[in-house]
Amino acid sequence: xxxxxxxxxxxxxxxxxxxxxxxxxxxxxxxxxxxxxxxxxxxxxxxxxxxxxxxxxxxxxxxxxxxxxxxxxxxxxxxxxxxxxxxxxxxxxxxxxxxxxxxxxxxxxxxxxxxxxxxxxxxxxxxxxxxxxxxxxxxxxxxxxxxxxxxxxxxxxxxxxxxxxxxxxxxxxxxxxxxxxxxxxxxxxxxxxxxxxxxxxxxxxxxxxxxxxxxxxxxxxxxxxxxxxxxxxxxxxxxxxxxxxxxxxxxxxxxxxxxxxxxxxxxxxxxxxxxxxxxxxxxxxxxxxxxxxxxxxxxxxxxxxxxxxxxxxxxxxxxxxxxxxxxxx
Length: 329
Ligand code: KG4
Ligand code: ZN
Hints:
Number of strands: 10
Bound molecules: 5'-O-[(R)-(carboxyoxy)(hydroxy)phosphoryl]adenosine, zinc ion
Radius of gyration: 20 Å
Order of helices and strands: EEEHHEHEHEEEHHHHEHEH
């Protein structure tokens, strides 16, 4: 079965073709980062308009690149939610309409399930059951994943998401959007021990809180402004974030008795987080799995793959177009 995946929940237009026999045939991705950069964050209306502009040219590019014709596509999976309402509508309408015209099934996919399953596309995929640490711009969750669609929420952020904290701290320090990769880059030149930052909610089993961390960074930043301490602060902040995520992930492994940890979502691209998990999990005879960097942040491949898993299980949607901006998994 050949599935076209469409991702338009935020500021990336991602399309991909996944073949159940041959795997991922190809993907195209257009990032709107430049468009939103001057505003310091994503402007919803601009995002929707840009998705509309890019969907058809990107589909043509993907078909040309893979040598596939529209008629060979067997099903379409699009991101139904969570995300920005207008942005979601563009992909949902495009996917549902194209599926109707081609007389093939369409299915709306949960964006976070896409992230969670993306590591299964790697050459050494994890096997169910596993613990998943989902860390993106909108979510921070620990889940026990027992199979497709069988997810148990173990803990989550009670305020900001991990990616959001990276983005807000970056903005505060005058770094461009998106903050995560820019903080990580600047942190390479800093000393992670130079600022002692709090690790909020460490006493609370598996929930996270990152808004206090952001305030703590702001207080330090205002104190040392103009002293050229940005790299030290970025390194200390990244250290505190990674420390918190690693400790809670290990706690979730111990709590469930599982030995595999999957990290997914934009923040899972963070090099320090990966290194720390690799070494700390080895000590408890557990293993960490993640997607290749291009499949950590938003992309169409994870949606095509998650859609195929759902279609394989006999699910498909009717002709209505539904989007779900807020949608628990
Ligand atoms: O999953 P994603 O692409 O979009 C959402 O679904 O939110 O995640 C985007 C988030 C942004 O907050 C971005 O700053 C963060 O992932 N991010 C990173 C890194 N790369 C992306 N955070 C830390 N380190 C990175 N290397
Ligand atoms: Zn995402």
